[in-house]
Amino acid sequence: MFELASHLQHYAWGSTTAIPEFLGCEPDGRPWAEAWFGAHPLAPATVPGGTGLDAVIAKERDRMLGPDVARAFGGQLPFLLKVIAAESPLSLQVHPSREHAAESFAAESAAGIALDSPRRIYRDANHKPEMLIALTRFTALCGFRTPRRAAVILDGLGTALTDRLHRLLVDNPTAHGMRAAFRTLVSASLRPAPEAVDAVVEACRARAAAGISPSPRIDRFVSLLADHHPGDPGVVAALLLNPVTLQSGEAMYVPAGALHAYLHGTGLEIMATSDNVLRAGLTAKRVDADEVLQCVSVTAAPPLRVAPERQNPTSIAYYAPVDDFELAVTELSDPDDPMAGTHPIPGSGPRIVLGLEGSATLETTTGSHALRAGQAVFVPAADGPLRARGHGSFAQASVP
């Protein structure tokens, strides 16, 4: 087992306290948005001595990953585990499919665009499906409503922009109508002026205050987004999307092509090892509307909530419909006794184990490691089965 130090990301939307408290660090006044526990070459976790986990794996791929995983994923760890702490809303975004990412990454590389260039859109050749498990109450937007339901949300707001969107959806209550409505908001040639967006926000606030909203939650989300991104057309796009509220322990899967925005809360994210993010709005970063429109799925779909499955008396697993990752949570309630028995932890292959609460002792055939909340270890495939004892909980990211 290798102890891991996370790679921290200090994005502006992060919380100044949630991740430092989780990791047992002193806050420094900066926003701590994400802690990455993985082997992405742009931001790998490190082992003692400062070597990146990607380099550790590259030296002994079969021992670290196991021959099957090494072969299936080109010698790369296929998943990335993160702690995410959103104090304010993230960008309205979508992630590409594996095929689109590979083609686009190859095209940008052939054009000689450096990975760190501001012209670069695709940072790697992989897709980025992801699953979020809430550690606190977590709010988000994810996926498009049905056109008819979105038309009901827009109806009666009485602004020129919402009337135009409403007509599009009533005249064509299909995925084509929804794509046209979304294109109206984000396309460079069609996007509305800030004044038109502000009018919609005021109409939503007035409707909510009057108690006549068909969706009070989405009106609150529109107001929240406008506070952080006034005049941004992505604020109005929220009216086309599903609002989501997750309580602690609840999970949501976000497939490639699903338009989404995380709004507030702390959670665990597990995803394919990728940093490909295509932004449609609600950000000071680069907006890639044309790429978003190529990749986005406008087919109506409810948020994909993932119910955990009981694996044994101590562990539950969250399964996503992808080959890259799965995540399990183990809760131990043994007395603080070094002689207490150990519990088998389901899973095999390369694993990252992250302490959530309390403490535990992890054991494999090669040794043991004491794990506290906020600490993480990488367990190579060659270490074999994992057992644990202690009083607390931890998450285990692995390959299905």
Automatic annotation (TrEMBL):
<dbReference type="GO" id="GO:0004476">
    <property type="term" value="F:mannose-6-phosphate isomerase activity"/>
</dbReference>
<dbReference type="InterPro" id="IPR018050">
    <property type="entry name" value="Pmannose_isomerase-type1_CS"/>
</dbReference>
<dbReference type="GO" id="GO:0008270">
    <property type="term" value="F:zinc ion binding"/>
</dbReference>
<feature type="active site">
    <location>
        <position position="279"/>
    </location>
</feature>
<keyword id="KW-0862">Zinc</keyword>
<dbReference type="GO" id="GO:0009298">
    <property type="term" value="P:GDP-mannose biosynthetic process"/>
</dbReference>
<dbReference type="Pfam" id="PF20511">
    <property type="entry name" value="PMI_typeI_cat"/>
</dbReference>
<keyword id="KW-0479">Metal-binding</keyword>
<keyword id="KW-0413">Isomerase</keyword>
<protein>
    <recommendedName>
        <fullName>mannose-6-phosphate isomerase</fullName>
        <ecNumber>5.3.1.8</ecNumber>
    </recommendedName>
</protein>
<comment type="similarity">
    <text>Belongs to the mannose-6-phosphate isomerase type 1 family.</text>
</comment>
<feature type="binding site">
    <location>
        <position position="95"/>
    </location>
    <ligand>
        <name>Zn(2+)</name>
    </ligand>
</feature>
<dbReference type="GO" id="GO:0005975">
    <property type="term" value="P:carbohydrate metabolic process"/>
</dbReference>
<feature type="domain" description="Phosphomannose isomerase type I catalytic">
    <location>
        <begin position="1"/>
        <end position="145"/>
    </location>
</feature>
<dbReference type="InterPro" id="IPR001250">
    <property type="entry name" value="Man6P_Isoase-1"/>
</dbReference>
<dbReference type="GO" id="GO:0005829">
    <property type="term" value="C:cytosol"/>
</dbReference>
<dbReference type="InterPro" id="IPR014710">
    <property type="entry name" value="RmlC-like_jellyroll"/>
</dbReference>
<feature type="binding site">
    <location>
        <position position="260"/>
    </location>
    <ligand>
        <name>Zn(2+)</name>
    </ligand>
</feature>
<dbReference type="InterPro" id="IPR011051">
    <property type="entry name" value="RmlC_Cupin_sf"/>
</dbReference>
<feature type="binding site">
    <location>
        <position position="130"/>
    </location>
    <ligand>
        <name>Zn(2+)</name>
    </ligand>
</feature>
<dbReference type="InterPro" id="IPR046457">
    <property type="entry name" value="PMI_typeI_cat"/>
</dbReference>
<feature type="binding site">
    <location>
        <position position="93"/>
    </location>
    <ligand>
        <name>Zn(2+)</name>
    </ligand>
</feature>
<dbReference type="InterPro" id="IPR016305">
    <property type="entry name" value="Mannose-6-P_Isomerase"/>
</dbReference>
